[in-house]
Write a structure and sequence with these properties.
The structure is a single chain. The protein has 8 helices and no strands. The chain has 174 residues and is an all-alpha fold. The protein has 2 domains: 87 residues; 60 residues.
Length: 174
């Protein structure tokens, strides 16, 4: 019950801009918003002959679309930042709560581009190791990946079925 109260309090603390941004993001991503925009363009096109395709007629649509585009950039950025932050927090929670994961991955978005590239190369290497295992459900932490792979391969190599499966002569002898 305490969590409900905290959650309700968190929702009430949204400032005017955040509430407006949420409303505007939902409103502008709707089918009605698209149809309204298409209707405005259609009305503008139809009124062209009435205004003799004048500079003022062209300026109206140019100014309107520029203002809307300018404002939408900020709304979209706000929405993307909020979504990105929420996803990062959810991933951090999953990483922190799971026994087998490396907590080094929490908040990696604060690393430099060079550090992220280094991690990316590690995961490419990890993916190549996983390809050798043949088990798509196998997972590793950063610290244990190479050791796990080596242990598994050595274990598989000790199996009679592995030796028979990889040795064409043993198949012929059977």
């Amino acid at each position: 019950m305490g969590c409900v109260t905290k959650t309700s309090a968190m929702h009430r603390k949204k400032n005017f801009f955040e509430r407006f941004a949420n409303w505007a993001t939902n409103a502008t991503s709707s089918s009605a918003a698209f149809l309204t925009a298409a209707a405005i363009i259609l009305i503008w096109i139809v009124t062209g002959p009435v205004f003799h395709y004048s500079d003022t007629w062209q300026l109206i649509i140019n100014t309107g679309t520029t203002i809307v585009t300018f404002l939408m950039v900020f709304l979209i950025q706000k929405s993307q930042n909020k979504d990105s932050k929420a996803i990062h927090l959810k991933l951090n929670e999953l990483i922190a709560s799971h026994q087998g994961t490396s907590n080094r991955m929490v908040n990696i978005e604060d690393l430099t581009e060079k550090e992220l590239d280094h991690l990316s190369r590690f995961y490419v290497r990890l993916a190549k190791l996983a390809e050798n295992e043949g088990d798509i459900t196998c997972t590793h932490s950063i610290d244990a990946a190479e050791e796990n792979n080596s242990n598994k391969l050595n274990s598989f190599k000790q199996r009679k079925s592995y030796k028979n499966g990889s040795n064409p002569k043993s198949k012929q002898n059977n």
